[in-house]
Automatic annotation (TrEMBL):
Organism: Jeotgalibaca dankookensis
NCBIfam families per the UniProt record, alphabetical: PRK00230.1, pyrF
Homology family: Belongs to the OMP decarboxylase family. Type 1 subfamily.
Oligomer status and interactors: Homodimer.
Broad class of enzyme this protein falls into: lyase
UniProt: substrate binding residues: 9, 31, 58-67, 121, 183, 192, 212-213
Protein name stated in the entry: Orotidine 5'-phosphate decarboxylase
SUPFAM superfamilies reported for this sequence: Ribulose-phoshate binding barrel
EC number(s) per entry: 4.1.1.23
Role: Catalyzes the decarboxylation of orotidine 5'-monophosphate (OMP) to uridine 5'-monophosphate (UMP).
Molecular functions per Gene Ontology: orotidine-5'-phosphate decarboxylase activity
Listed pathway(s): Pyrimidine metabolism; UMP biosynthesis via de novo pathway; UMP from orotate: step 2/2
Residue ranges of domain Orotidine 5'-phosphate decarboxylase in the record: 3-228
Length: 237
């Protein structure tokens, strides 16, 4: 079965360990974002690797090409399954990121998947127009960034599930869509704007879904996770 990626929205190694220890016999795919990584550094990755879980390191690199290249060489040695950059950094930056990731991966290990953020799921078209001064529509912007990402040779993009179908239609081969902004029915949206359910994400063509607070902030995270996992895989009881 496909595994939802659990966003570990915690600020310490202890919180993360306490949370993950609830999943005694479950092999997970987890996301380590900026909040957690900046507090713990690589130690959190080493520990999670020791537990046999896959890791999406979500640092959204966006800098000059040489800095991103050198950073990716370091990330490649950490043993994560997937990491990312901002597509807004441009073609040359994304190519440099991929080069660094490939060069830094130890012999015998698989090169991590590299994906690019198109527009954050907290971004609306009004925000794009008024704050970014982007004249294109939101979907045009996302589609453009996806094409640029594919041209750079990356594995796929981070986008809303709402945009997955059009991205798939305009890309070649196995170009993946990793979609945050997933909320089961009756869940709070929080700061997410472009939101869909796990079932709808599957129907729209998402390859990976990222779910945080609907799992991490419930009284029974294991039950919440298993329910979302079933919904994501179309399992009915």
């Amino acid at each position: 079965m496909n595994k939802p990626i659990i966003a570990l929205d915690f600020s310490s190694l202890k919180e993360s360990k306490d949370f993950l220890k609830q999943f005694k016999d479950e092999s997970l795919y987890v996301k380590i974002g900026m909040e957690l990584f900046y507090q713990t550094g690589p130690e959190i990755i080493t520990w999670i690797n020791s537990q046999g879980h896959d890791i999406f390191l979500d640092l959204k690199l966006h800098d000059i090409p040489n800095t991103v290249y050198r950073s990716m060489r370091g990330i490649a040695r950490l043993g994560v399954s997937m990491t990312n950059v901002h597509a807004a950094g441009g073609l040359t930056m994304m190519e440099a990121a991929l080069k660094g990731l490939r060069e830094g991966t130890p012999v015998g290990l698989a090169v991590p998947k590299l994906i690019a953020v198109t527009q954050l799921t907290s971004t609306t078209e009004d925000i794009m127009r008024q704050e970014q001064l982007v004249e294109a529509s939101l979907i045009e912007s996302v589609r453009h960034y996806a094409k640029l990402t594919e041209k750079a040779g990356l594995n796929g993009v981070v986008c809303s599930a709402m945009e997955a179908a059009t991205i798939k239609e305009n890309s070649q081969g196995k170009f993946i869509c990793v979609t945050p902004g997933i909320r089961p029915n009756n869940s709070k949206f929080y700061d997410q704007k472009r939101v869909v359910t796990p079932q709808r994400a599957r129907e729209l063509g998402s390859d990976f879904i990222v779910v945080g607070r609907p799992i991490t902030q419930t009284t029974n995270p294991v039950t919440a996770y298993l329910t979302i996992k079933d919904q994501w895989n179309g399992v009915t009881h």
